[in-house]
Every structure is written in structure tokens, then in C-alpha cells.
Amino acid sequence: MTRLPQRPAGGPRRGKRPHPATRRRPLDGARLTAYDVLDGVTSRDAYANLLLPQLLRERGLDTRDAAFATQLAYGTLRAAGTLDAVLSGLVDRPLGELDPRVLDLLRLGAYQLIDLRVPSHAAVDTTVDLARAIVGTGASGLVNAVLRKVAAGGDRMQWLHALGGDREQQLALATDHPAWIVDAWRDALGGEEELEPALMADDAAPEVHLVARRVARAELVEESGGSPGPYSPFAVRLPGGDPGRLASVRSGRAAVQDEGSQLAGLLLTRAPLEGPDAAWLDMCAGPGGKAGLLAAVRPEGVRLTAADRAPHRADLVRQALRDEADVEVLAADGREAPWQAGSFDRVLLDAPCTGLGALRRRPEVRWRRTPEDVAPLVELQVELLASALASVRVGGVVAYVTCSPHTEETVGVVEVAAARDDVEVLPVAPLFPEVPGIARGDYGQLWPHRHGTDAMFMALLRRIR
Ligand SMILES: C[S@@+](CC[C@H](N)C(=O)[O-])C[C@H]1O[C@@H](n2cnc3c(N)ncnc32)[C@H](O)[C@@H]1O
């Protein structure tokens, strides 16, 4: 560590105090934690929603600093596209040629200046301190010079104006979405009318949603200080905070789960069914969010089988179902089912997908995903849905669910199955009369701007012969 310049004996003389900029300030804990999240995402492909809570726990930041670190980390990750557009005009080489640590620091500083309007001396000085400590003195000079130019350019509105571009580019920049995701949302929404509010809502920090599994919802409301969710009878919404501190969450009687995911799980339970109703399958169950809810709400006598291809995800399901009787957890590929064909009455297929509907909770995913990811996922989804239909008895139901509204992964996949002569589509909206605006044709679609949930898609299919 660099040592402070030594004062002459007898203390500083008047007019000879060291310049404040040469003194070392302690690093700001919230900003350092936010930087460490950005660095984990950049250099180790970490997931911010897993890394951040771990760092907050380890470092014991107080509530205020933890909230600021969260805002900085998530906000910077969400806004990376716009921040890079600003920064690329101010750096004398392509951003990809910068030391990745310097780029993350520039993004962190620029986010504070442009989006949070943190006074420029605080945003610049603290980022320069981080640069000096993490990368070195040379980097701190570059960070200082670039961030001063960012500050001089004004706030987000002024920067968007300066960046220019057509309406499409402006929408992508203003809402922090890559252009191909803007297109996918437009397509799923059926046009322009709701596009901007939908993308804006997808760019906002989400509330925390809890699910009351084995505790009365009123009790969880009381314990958490939240309010009942408007749609799922098990949902509690909180403006923020660390739900891991709640006794109900620690004991597994409640869990963190988006209210839209709760509805997607409940869809399976609401489908009308004739004949036996004793065997349910959750075919892609890891980490066990929907399996946990299904286990809690199933009628007496229903056996729940939950499978996941990834053994470590199957272990997480086992953990989520640890206190439930009459459940079986398998590490199994749904396409090579180890169970007998036609052996289930209800099957949930919560398919692996691009996650374009859950970007609020996984802020870096929008920049990680590419349009090339879609086709291989669609191929897998079609195969899994065929397998789900083979796993259900004649007369039984399959709920097909994705946390993506992308038309190819949703309507496109279901239409392949619905074209078969042994399958019929059951309309979703009548099963959710309490959820206005859920219909997407015969399917269900939730949206952050309409429902305050992730953009979950759901479809219900019956084997008719
Ligand atoms: C959207 S996540 C499921 C989320 C889960 N239902 C929940 O609510 O917590 C999709 C899961 O599918 C699993 N998966 C991917 N391919 C699979 C396959 N061929 N068979 C079974 N599971 C698969 C992934 O490991 C992942 O855990």
C-alpha cells in the first residue's frame, strides 16, 4: 500500500497542508461492494442476484449502505448499454480494449452521474479512489478525466439527446434494453401501444415478492410489514429489504417468489380435470420455487414428482421440499423420462428459456443473451413439451410456462404441440378471473407494467386421446 507523505516534525505549517487530494480516504463500502459485483459479473460470469446478497452478508453493511450498494450494482448492470454509449465517445480507444476493471469503474461512476445525479465531486472522487486502490494510479487518472467529461454532459435526458439516433435506438437507450429485446417485446405485446411503458417497467427495480407456503398469508404480512399481492392468494409484496432475515423465510414456510411465478404454478392446479387426480409432475423443477408451492397447495393424496436435468438443481429442489411428505425428486432429463408414459394427471413444464421476462431480477442477463440463444432453446422446448404430453394420461393436463414473452419460445412452441390431433388448448384467462389483462389469445401473459410481475407466459394443454 502507498504510504502517506510524512509531515515535517511539529505538524503542518500554515499554508503547507498536504493537498486534500493526496490524502487517502477510506474506500466507500457500498461502492466497493457494487464494484465487486460488477467485476464478478464481468470476469467470472457471476449472477448479480446471487453474488450481491452473499457480499452483503459477508461485509455486514448497514441497511442504508446495503440499499445503496444494491441500487448501484443493479442500476449499473441494467444501464450498461447506455453507459457504454456515453463512454465510448469519451475514451480514445474501443471500450473492449480497456482493462475490464477500468471499464466497470467507469460504468459505476457514470451511472452515479447520469442516472442518480450524485454530486460530481462525490461520484468522481470515490470512483477515482477505487480505481487507484484496485487498478493503480495510472488508471485513476483516466477515470478522473473521463468521469469529469461525463459530469459535464449532464443527466440521462441530456446525454440521450446528445447521443441522437432514430426512435428505435432512443427507445433502446432510454429503457436500457438491447434492440433485439425491444423487438421481441413489441412482437409479444402486439404493437407499439404499450411498448414503452412495458420496457420502462422492466427497467425499474422490482419489489420483493414472497410466497406464503406453509404459513398463513396474513401472518406473513404481519411479520414482513408487506402487503398482500393483488392476484395470488399466497403473495406478499414488499418495497425492498432483505427477506432472508424473516423467520418464515429462514424456516422454509415462506420463500422469495415473483407473484407471476406463483400464478404460473397455480395454473396447473386450476385446470379442470375429470377422473383421477393423484400424480403430479414438475418436469423442470430446479431450484424448486414452483415445486415448493405445488407441494404446499396440492390436495391430500396427491404425490408430487419433481425432476431436473442438473443434479445440483435437483439438490436445490430436495432442499426446497425437505419438509414435504409424498414427494419424489429426480435428477433426470425430461426428454428421456425415467417414468412411465401416461403416468401423471398433471404436468408442469416450466421450460428453460431466455429469461427475457425476468430481466428486472437478473439485471445483467439482457446484455448476456443474444438472438442466437433463441433457436436452440426453442428446439429443446419443443422436445420437452412433446415429452410432457407423453408423460400425462389421456384427459390429463400440461401447463407450459416460460419466464419469457418471446413469441418463438411461447406461442410458437405451443402451436407445434397444439397442431397434434391428440391435444387441445384450454383457455387460460377464464381460470384467472381476478387477473385483468392476462389473456394473450387462449394463452396467459403477465407483464411488469400491467401486473407488477415478471413477464411470465403460460399455456394449458389437454391430452384428448
Ligand atoms: C425455468 S427453470 C425452472 C424453474 C423452476 N420451475 C422454479 O420455479 O424454481 C428451468 C430448469 O430446467 C432445467 N432443465 C433444462 N433442461 C432440462 C431437461 N432436458 N430436462 C429437465 N430439466 C431441464 C434447468 O436445469 C432449470 O433448472
UniProtKB/TrEMBL annotation:
Active site: 403
Binding site for S-adenosyl-L-methionine: 284-290, 308, 333, 350
UniProt xrefs under InterPro entries: MeTrfase_RsmB-F_NOP2_cat, MeTrfase_RsmB-F_NOP2_dom, NusB-like_sf, NusB_RsmB_TIM44, RCMT, RsmB/NOL1/NOP2-like_CS, SAM-dependent_MTases_sf
Biased composition (Basic residues): 13-24
Amino acid composition bias (Low complexity), ranges on this chain: 1-11
SUPFAM superfamilies: NusB-like, S-adenosyl-L-methionine-dependent methyltransferases
Keywords: Methyltransferase, RNA-binding, S-adenosyl-L-methionine, Transferase
Region annotation (Disordered) ranges: 1-26
Annotated GO biological process: regulation of DNA-templated transcription; RNA methylation
One MF term in the entry's GO annotations: RNA binding
Keyword Repeat: no
Top-rank lineage group of the source organism: Bacteria
Keyword field contains RNA-binding: yes
Pfam families found in the cross-reference section: Methyltr_RsmB-F (PF01189), NusB (PF01029)
Function, in words: May act as RNA methyltransferase.
Family: Belongs to the class I-like SAM-binding methyltransferase superfamily. RsmB/NOP family.
Name of this chain's protein: 16S rRNA (Cytosine967-C5)-methyltransferase
